[in-house]
Amino acid sequence: MQIIIETKRLWIREIEPEDIDCLLEIYNNPQNMVFIPNSNFKWTETKLKEKYQKLNQNYFNGFGVFIIQIKDKDTIIGEAGLFNSFQNFKHLELGYIVDHKFWRNGYGSEICNALINYGFQKLKLEKLTARMFKENLASIKLSEHCGMKLVKSKSPENDIDFYEYEVTNKTE
What we know:
The protein is an alpha+beta fold. It has a single domain (3-127), classed as 3-Layer(aba) Sandwich (Aminopeptidase), CATH 3.40.630.30. The protein has 5 helices and 8 strands. The chain has helices at 20-27, 30-33, 45-55, 107-122, 137-145, and strands at 3-6, 10-14, 65-70, 75-83, 91-98, 127-133, 149-154, 162-168.
């Protein structure tokens, strides 16, 4: 198991083949995916593996999608990652999916703060952006709690409002 980040309660680590069944369960639960753009609740093992293979081409650069695992219980509670959404290795997007059974336990804050610190300290990023639907009040509060500032409010072609929050590396 390759741990990328260790927090007080969590391991943020690379995805391993034996994690796919647990991730499929998370992905196929509509409650977990309600605020995920283009939500699909009918994932197959093949489709999920293809998604991770595509998103994790940059593991060698230190970013991609990672498993979120509770240390004491070896329980997988979701995924989180840093994505090259802006075609700029100094500006990445932060995203996460946490199984609804683990909401309201402070894990989101622990995950986001750890990824922000990792991105700025280890990867030497200049900026991190998080995007969320306007209705996703928990992610809005989490972004603000983690020091991110609202920079854009957009309405894409499908007329669904979403926000962009950013944080910049103060040491750069």
